[in-house]
Amino acid sequence: QIENELGVAECLKLLGDIYRMQGKYDEAIGMISDAQKQFETFGNQLRAAECLWSLGEISKNQKKYDEASEMTLKSQKQFEEIGDKKGAAECLEALGRIYMNQAQYDEAVDMLSRARVQYQSVGRIVNVAWCYQRLGITYRSQGEYKKAKEAFTEALELFKGYPGEKYYIGYTLVNFGHLFLI
């Protein structure tokens, strides 16, 4: 009624993300796609890129990996164009997870390594640790146990600097322990 189209787009994005988190993907896709188009119309590249990222996450959760890669790559390019290094790093990390899910380990290592460097450049140390964690899992899956051990060790050292990350320290130790079961 007040003709606030940007506000409508914001609401669509938020509702779409709620549906995404609830696993109601059809509803989420419709709302987030509409929001993305509206943000593009308004020239709000940041919010449009965030919509693309959300659509990529939905596709990943649905195991539609080609679609997920496409959306996430588009999002990453948009984040890079506007200079949002954190957003671009999140996309690279998401691409790494997509490739891990498909057992495309070389591609996963490439994306996770790039995400790690990007996170490092913006001071997101916990995210750097997560990248090492995922690299360790990827290396273990490839049978590269020495590299996996090094990656898990790096993750642990970084997580130890953040006392609130005890759960992640435990998760890393569990993954580290899997190296000794092989």
UniProtKB/TrEMBL annotation:
Keyword set includes ATP-binding: no
**SMART domains the record matches:** TPR
State the InterPro entries in the record: TPR-like_helical_dom_sf, TPR_rpt
Q: Name one Pfam family in it.
A: TPR_16
Q: Which UniProt keywords apply?
A: Repeat, TPR repeat
Q: Where is the signal peptide?
A: none
* Taxonomic superkingdom: Eukaryota
TPR repeat copies, ranges: 129-162
Q: Which PANTHER family match?
A: NEPHROCYSTIN-3, TETRATRICOPEPTIDE REPEAT PROTEIN (AFU_ORTHOLOGUE AFUA_6G03870)
Q: What is this protein called?
A: TPR-like protein
Annotated source species: Dendrothele bispora (strain CBS 962.96)
Its lineage reads: Eukaryota, Fungi, Dikarya, Basidiomycota, Agaricomycotina
